[in-house]
Design brief:
single chain, alpha/beta, seven-stranded mixed beta sheet, two-stranded antiparallel sheet, elongated
Length: 401
Amino acid sequence: NSFWRDAWWQLHCELELAAPPTITVEARIAGDRFYRFLERTWQWQQLPPALLLYACGGLGLVCWGVCARIATAVIGHWLIGYFAHNHGEAHFEVRGAAVQGHNVRFTSLLTMGECWHNNHHAYPGSARLGLEPGEWDPGWWLLAGLQRIGLVWNIRLPQDLPLRPELQRLGGSGGTAPAAARVKRSQRFFNRLTLPIYDLVLYGVISRHAWGMTTARLDAHYQRYTRSNHLEVGVGTGYLLDRVEFPSGPTRLALMDLSEPCLIRTARRVARHAPETYVQNLLEPMRHQLAPFDSIALNYVMHCVPGSFMEKHVAFLHLATLLGPHGVLFGTTVLGDGVRKNWLARPAMWLLNAIGLFNNRQDCARDLERFLRAHFQVLEFDVVGVAAVFAVRHKAARKIT
């Protein structure tokens, strides 16, 4: 509808729905005497400030401080709602929804972050609405501060919410490229020119001296959790996989990556195990119907996947569909936030993010651990240098000795 017609309807008409939604307020909230008092007496609450303003400056101050303030709040609430459902940028689409939300960037401070309405439609149960860099969210700042001093708890963020199959990531404005384009951009660095020096640069220099993760630590992680029925995801050159001593007996080995050069090079390196190879984008549902695996490795992969853990956590859920009932999903990822970077890690991480090979500026251990504990049984979680080391399995699995 037109702007003025919508304004008239919203401000002067009563909305009657043919099939209104059922909204049930929790009993502890609905029955709270203080909240009920505020709801019942909101008009009388204007009297004390009106008297104070009248004493200070007469009727003019009362008009500005009470009447104009309430009118501005009511009209402003509708105005933001109108634009947030009709105009503005969008990072997400909720497929099948009757209406989509939009982000109204220039009103972030005025609305305490409520203007990030597209984000709210995508994650309606999230206390944080500003999800992208530069999306100021004063409401979240306040909640986070109250949480720190113990006045607020059980805050839920997008990574704590159930996966929504109908939610689709879009390309956004404001410098946010489509996820598909960012994935493609990161993959271009894995080619015939870079792969011959990949092991030397990553494991000989960067992993040890920048990330603080030695090859011996990575080898031990692999040896502890790798089984004879194994899927290697984000294979690189297969350096660590080639060093694993598989348990005796027949070995089923599968390789999964979006980079065909990586798959080809790794398949040659571990050809003695006759590996299966699969091309797959981890942000998309599995394209292949595969028998479950007893171990899945995800080593140095997630920091290359676009988005924060609030978005790219779907990669774990997609891989979980390939994990056997007692299988283990393990790996490492480099964190970009909340870790102390040494003299080499800081410029290296800045450069790798700038060229598009890394996408981990917002990755922090707290978000990753919170998601993993919400969806899996965590066997191991540790931060070594600037890297998170993890191992998880399905919550229903029994303990393996």
